[in-house]
């Protein structure tokens, strides 16, 4: 039998037997397991950037007949990767809880286990396949368990292939564009007992009004999805699709509602928040305008991540300089200090342009604390070019950075470049960079000694329940003694002893407890 769709990249035809084809779905048997492919990912399609406008859907209620589906059942989700994924997990939890599922304390108690995965580097993927190996045993003990894989790895054809051919104990694979389809997919898996695969290669439309199960006093808010930057090393534009912005009125309504519920801090999320609004055809409204409007909402702290230096414009700097709830911590990944390497990364700015931007930020926002993401060992990176990265950290006074060894990702342009920096050299560069970052962090922290600053109390220390931790507006981690009733509050502390990675402090003034959260988290 010939298949109407070409899935030849996913498996060896000689081993798979097609069982049926109906309604655009293909069901086949492979290694004794029935696999139902509703749709599978394709890099070719993920690379495309169509001109068609994005539709926004507001009506996404869970069908009535599914609201009891998860009754007396529980779920467990393991989340890998960035804040975008963490926030997607909140949506998934929201959907599951609207279906009646409750969260399981431990994975072995759960009826549904989902792995929300990250594809950014090879080691992120290795962790997931390792975890799937462990879960195989649990699945054998509990055949009724539904084991699902979602997130960025699901958008990769090679991963879907490996799941189909070598992980028959997986029951469900869905991607980043069709999270809202989860209730339907769970029903399909439960009734068919087949492995169900539904991954959309073309980005979905924007789905509003999905339930979100948030925790704590800090909330993430998506302002845009996808990325069009195509940095040559990066897989995100393929796994997350094209840039599309949520309408300002929808973002502002969500932020106002969070303020009403008593949240103390929001973080606006996007792979490249500075590109917000570029896709609007009917209005000239950009990230700076959005920040200016959010500034007027009564929520104590507003953060955003991540900004690309290229789109960080003067208007945004002007708005951030107004301060108020817009904090002075700015995460600004620069990736490399060498203009030559930046060019090969297709970052579209030079070292000098980055420094100029930092200069503008510093003169407009005197207390600005900058953090960054940096890659070492990009193809062809010389010792000299690496030294330029070190010197840029100093010149730009980067206080904190996430540092990474370059990891080749199949399907990206850099994958075609010769990965010619030996691993030992990459490791050595990473160590030297990390030493410098520790020095920079220490130096930046030292400036806080003796100062009284406002912090948001986030939780208890894991090792000592009498010690609380919180963060300053500049995003410094602070430890101090206090009762757990202070968690979730803003308060003043005096910094007593800064260390490399955090600040020790003492309470200067207890919080006004009347300002507690009203949403009960
Ligand atoms: N959108 C964000 C970054 C998201 S990925 C931005 O552009 O700032 C987070 C970080 O992972 C990147 O900033 C980069 O430093 C790192 N990264 C991405 N792809 C990588 C790769 N192939 N190897 C190593 N690090 C990578
Ligand atoms: Fe990746 Fe570059 Fe987009 Fe960031 S801006 S997500 S590094 S392609
Ligand atoms: Fe990873 Fe996807 Fe985020 S690849 S870093 S989870 S966007």
From TrEMBL:
Pfam families: Radical_SAM (PF04055), TRAM (PF01938), UPF0004 (PF00919). Residues 213-443 form the Radical SAM core domain. This is tRNA-2-methylthio-N(6)-dimethylallyladenosine synthase. [4Fe-4S] cluster 1 binds at residues 82, 118, 152. HAMAP family: tRNA_metthiotr_MiaB (MF_01864). PANTHER family: CDK5 REGULATORY SUBUNIT-ASSOCIATED PROTEIN 1 (PTHR43020), MITOCHONDRIAL TRNA METHYLTHIOTRANSFERASE CDK5RAP1 (PTHR43020:SF2). Monomer. Binds 2 [4Fe-4S] clusters. One cluster is coordinated with 3 cysteines and an exchangeable S-adenosyl-L-methionine. Belongs to the methylthiotransferase family. MiaB subfamily. Residues 446-509 form the TRAM domain. Its EC number is 2.8.4.3. The lineage of its organism: Bacteria, Bacillati, Bacillota, Bacilli, Bacillales. Residues 73-191 form the MTTase N-terminal domain. Its cofactor is [4Fe-4S] cluster. It catalyses: N(6)-dimethylallyladenosine(37) in tRNA + (sulfur carrier)-SH + AH2 + 2 S-adenosyl-L-methionine = 2-methylsulfanyl-N(6)-dimethylallyladenosine(37) in tRNA + (sulfur carrier)-H + 5'-deoxyadenosine + L-methionine + A + S-adenosyl-L-homocysteine + 2 H(+). SMART domains: Elp3. Catalyzes the methylthiolation of N6-(dimethylallyl)adenosine (i(6)A), leading to the formation of 2-methylthio-N6-(dimethylallyl)adenosine (ms(2)i(6)A) at position 37 in tRNAs that read codons beginning with uridine. It is found in: Cytoplasm.
